[in-house]
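Key idea: predict the complex, not the pieces.
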Amino acid sequence: MAAPERVTVVAAGVVTPIGADLEAFWSALVTGASGISQIERVAVADLRVQRGGEVKKVGRIKDWRGVPDCRATRLLVAAADDLCTQTGFRPLPLDPARVGVVVGTALGGVEEGERALAGESARRLRDALYDGPGDRLARWLGARGPVITVSTACASGATALAMGADLLRRGEADAVVAGGYDVLCRFVLRGFDALRSLTRDEVRPFDRRRTGLLLGEAGALALLRRERDVRGPRLGTLLGYGSASDGFHIAAPEPQGRGLERAITAALADAGVSARDIDLVSAHGTATPLNDRIETAALKRALGARAYQVPVNSIKAGLGHTMGAAAALEAFMCLLAAQRALIPPTLNLEDPDPECDLDYVPGQARPGRPRLMLSTSMGFGGCNGALVLEAA
Amino acid sequence: MTAAPAIRALGLLSGQSPAEAGPAARILPLPRPNRAGDRFRRTTRECLLALAAVDAMLEDGTAGRDAIAGDRTALQYVTAAAYGASNRAFIERRGGVMHFAYTAPAVVSAEVAIEFGITGPYGILIGGAPATLRAIEQSARLLEAGRCDRALVLVVEIFEECADLYARHRRFDHRPLVETAACLWLERGVGDLRFESARGAGAAGDPPGGGERFAAGPLADLREWRDGARTEPLELSGAWRGEHARLRWSTEQSHARGSAA
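Result:
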């Protein structure tokens, strides 16, 4: 059987609570900067937890003409603007009909639904449907190929990158802009607050004292091309993807992490590599008491002895959990770590949980040049996803 | 081109046809299914309809629950708007703490996975008819690659809870909105499946009966084709947000009700 077409991550663009573009994002990751702050854009006075990873200024765009006043769309467009600035991808350098867009989101444009229900124009409904912001992004880019929105909860960014790679392998597109986004809006803040999933402390992945997550918002997009079509610089290669459903509970992970284990195993098989080849793991690492213990157990079973030999980090302490954007940001972190030979630390990890006994890169960034990276994601509804990435 | 899957079974629950409902009807609703057990006490209507669609599919295929349980079953869920009802309820502060979890589209397929013990590969697409055609094609590829032994394509669209919002939006005032829940069971088959998609291309076919079913349109068309015992090649099409998609399915594949492929 012929080897599957290799898909290159040419470049990435982001807007995050710790940086308005990819370079600022990377600098903040390796210096351990935190983007957690008091939430200012929406009312939070009635909520138990009022902090999160809020983007204070959406990208570097000065002229928003032609882009609707929809924060989800603007996060996507800001990330795309960063991507296009690096790659010269706007105006499109190839046939627009051959450019696809795949975005992942947990919330879509739900904030537009809130506004429509509050009496604002019914036109907001167009963006309130979860595929609205992705459609707007395609229009901003001028892309006229496939436009797809996936919503596998907090694994959405991974699903979107994988689906973007599939479009290229099948020849449905010659270039795909793929990634994820989500907005820190009152809807989701109120929801997680009610579930008591948010911490009033710092976010402490894998720490004995961890008490929960904080939410964040971001847009994160990559330009994907078939490897044979790429000349010049690139970030790396998207080698494999796996998914598996827990089939256990709508809001809690399966206690043994079997779904995540199956997703990792499937991703390794899809990539054609073994656990022994993995050099770095970007964990989902939300810092909820259950997640980190379950994820650690799943990594040990899926990677065997290798789980103890490789760094495993979580970048959510400084960003917040950016939901649909999280897996894409974590994939970009892996590729940047390989490119720059530096592994960002897990912030606020000071008192390791005995049940979380892997090397989580506490403290400071660590020198290292991983070649193959694994990134894991888990979401509401028992959605588990895993990506395998290769250094350029 | 992908190897065409065989249609093992199709369950479809639909609101009245526009002809039956009369010209004034704007929403053609499905009732909330009754399901015994405390677990379903707080479950949303879209989740219950999803479960009912899977039940209908099993009945159509004269199969028991065990036939779809396990990690060799893939599940693809598609909807354009079913989450609107639960999102609205949460925004308007109806429902309790757990209601927030039910606002996620992922929870509809999660309820199906939990109830029927499905733990294989999954996907969730948000969009109209082209997304459903894409989900069928993805399922065919999962089967072709041996990543699963059977693939379910689940679609739910409900509108009633947001009827006033749809009435305010001109995009949705041309045809009645027909609530639909459907689940398609695919297995490996013979023949070819060809998926095509273009933006701004020629018009695709309208949903049957003049109603708008969003993502559920192709499965209603498929049901009509199968129940009509048609012999011509199966071709499903649909449009959404300027994308027109078409799925051509060779007729060599089995569409016999209840027969294992």
